[in-house]
Amino acid sequence: MEHITLYKDQFCISTDKTRLDIDDIHGFLSTKAYWCLNIPKETVLAAIQNSLCFGVYLNEKQIGFARIISDFSTIAYLGDVYILEEYRGNGLSKWLMETIMNHPDLQGLRRWILLTGDAHGLYRQFGWTDIADPSKWMELHNKNVYSK
C-alpha cells in the first residue's frame, strides 16, 4: 500500500506509520479517549501495526489520528479518531474524514462501521447513518478489559 501525504496550510495528513508518535497516541487514547481509557501501550502498538493509520500533523507535531481495520474488499471499521482539543475548530476532523473516505484502497466497500458516543454529526456529513436494523447486530464487549 502506497503512503498518502496531503497538505493544507500548515497541517498535514499522512498514512506513513514511521511518522506516528506512538507515545502521543498512547497518551491520548489511554487518558482522554472514553472508549479505551487505560489501554496498554503494547495494545496500541499492535493495533497500529495491524491497521491503516492516518496521522494528522502541525509541522512535525502529531495532533490527530485515526485508524482503519479492513479487508480492503468488503468492510472497514473506523476507530480511534481524534484531534487534540486545542486544534479543534480548524476543520481538521472533516479533512481527516474526507481523506479517509477518499483513500484509493477503501473504495467500493460494501460496509463501513464505527462506534461513537459524541461525534454523530461529523460522521453524518459523510453519509453515515444509524444502523437500519440493530436486531441483526451482535457484539461481545468487555468494557473493563483495560481496567487495573
UniProtKB/TrEMBL annotation:
Domain N-acetyltransferase positions: 1-148
Gene3D superfamilies: 3.40.630.30
Coiled-coil ranges per UniProt: none
InterPro entries cross-referenced by the UniProt entry: Acetyltransferase_Butenolide, Acyl_CoA_acyltransferase, GNAT_dom
Taxonomic superkingdom: Bacteria
CDD domains xrefs: NAT_SF (cd04301)
PANTHER family the record matches: FAMILY N-ACETYLTRANSFERASE, PUTATIVE (AFU_ORTHOLOGUE AFUA_6G03350)-RELATED
Protein name: GNAT superfamily N-acetyltransferase
